[in-house]
Prior knowledge:
Elements: H1 2-33, H2 40-44, H3 46-64, H4 75-100, H5 107-137, E1 143-148, H6 152-163, E2 169-175, E3 189-191, H7 193-210, E4 231-234, H8 241-253, E5 257-260, E6 264-265, E7 268-269, E8 273-277, E9 280-284, H9 293-314, H10 318-328, E10 334-340, E11 346-352, H11 375-383, H12 390-396, E12 400-402, H13 409-418, E13 431-433, H14 435-438, H15 448-463, H16 467-482
Parallel strand pairs: 1-2, 1-4, 2-3, 4-5, 12-13
Antiparallel strand pairs: 6-7, 8-9, 10-11
Helix pairs in contact: 1-3, 1-5, 3-4, 4-5, 4-16, 7-8, 9-12
Amino acid sequence: MRQATSGTNIIRTSVMLSDWIILNTLLGIFINYIPSITPYYFTAATKISVLAANMAFGIAQYFFCTIIHFRQIQFDQVLHRVLKLSITQLILTFTFLQFLCPSESFLAFSIIFFCIYFFAIMCSRYVEKDVLKHYRALGRNTRRVLFVGCDPAILELYNYMISDPSIGYRVAGYFSNKELKGAPAGFKHLGTRHDLIERVRHYMDYTAKSGNAISNNNATKDTIILPNCDEMFVSLSHDYTDEIVTLMRFCDKNIIHFYYVPRLFGSYKLNLTPERVGEMDLFTNHIEPLQSMGNRFIKRSFDILLSLLAIAVITPFVPIISFMIHLQSAGPIFFFQERTGLNGANFNMMKFRSMHISSDADKKQATKNDPRKFSFGDFMRKTNIDEFPQFINVLLGDMSIVGPRPHMIYHTTTYSQLIDKYMVRHFCKPGITGWAQVTGCRGETKEVWQMEERIKRDIWYIENWTPWLDIRIIILTAKSIIIPDKHAY
């Protein structure tokens, strides 16, 4: 465990050193090669101005140093952290310089410099993350993991840990009274749960009496071989409370991180989150950040501002789009269809019409070579242009820019009977684009498992919403307009 902590400290220090090099390299470039936009004070008092920037760097790093060494980290979390780091650096540097030389304005330069600084830091994070991935793949900066129990949740967690070497986990195996069904050969069954509990209790009794800890190096036939791990994941029934408490006490005394893994009930997984109701702690199986009034206000404000901007940009092109639709297909410009929205309420979704008028529009999904599509309509669907009128739905409050895609009433009725958690996706407003769409779950759903994967990703979005996640999804959607998704039809 000390080795893992030491390795983490080295990673954090190395990344901070890289940030420091980037800062001072950029300062050197501006002072020496771009004097036209660099304030005169940097030339007249170079040492003091650079010192001020580095003092600001130290404070910003103290509060917002890198988090890429965390074993479960998402892109939006890294982006958010670097943004905070850069803004803090910007404000502090500007304040210091303005205090040192109040007669000169540093605002314009500070904004330009730190936009470039932010971009450079984000590029370095990509490189550092890739280096860290290879570093951990070589067996460095890893944490040894031990599982207890035979619930399928254990196997799911194991598969996640070994799927990405950059996470840096090394699984020792699992203790259980029976072998885990479907466990791969590499997932070792180390013994029964009773055997582990007896070893741990023997250890606890021995250390309580003698005051000396037992290690695997000094163990004898009269003592025990202890589980060698940094983290322990336990998935047992609450009927085994005494055993769970024993393992927690053992972990606390040996500086091992203990985790309780919620059990799976068939295909239903309990994602329990504590909530306070009066004097009682209750648990809910769905995390919904958008239940917060503040978060809903942020998301709604963002929706309104971006929708107004999008409508202003799109409106001049509506006559051209209208002409192309009329040229290739008789009928209205816009297509209205009843879809399922927030809390299961229905609304009329608006699109540019991309298909010939047909009687099965409310039941049949678009297919790759769908004869109902006309050529310009096919182009609109691949580049998402047909979705633009939905910004009006967003202004009306029926939709959000980002959220689970609204489905036809027929599909809601059908899939709600086939998929247990299907209706959970309606806990938030549907979106023009969504997490499922930008992560590959787009196009026709020929099999139920394809829709199940979409639902899983929709629920993940609802439970993990942040403004930064919305921004990431919008960026990925914009990319798909330039490079159309092969599943978009």
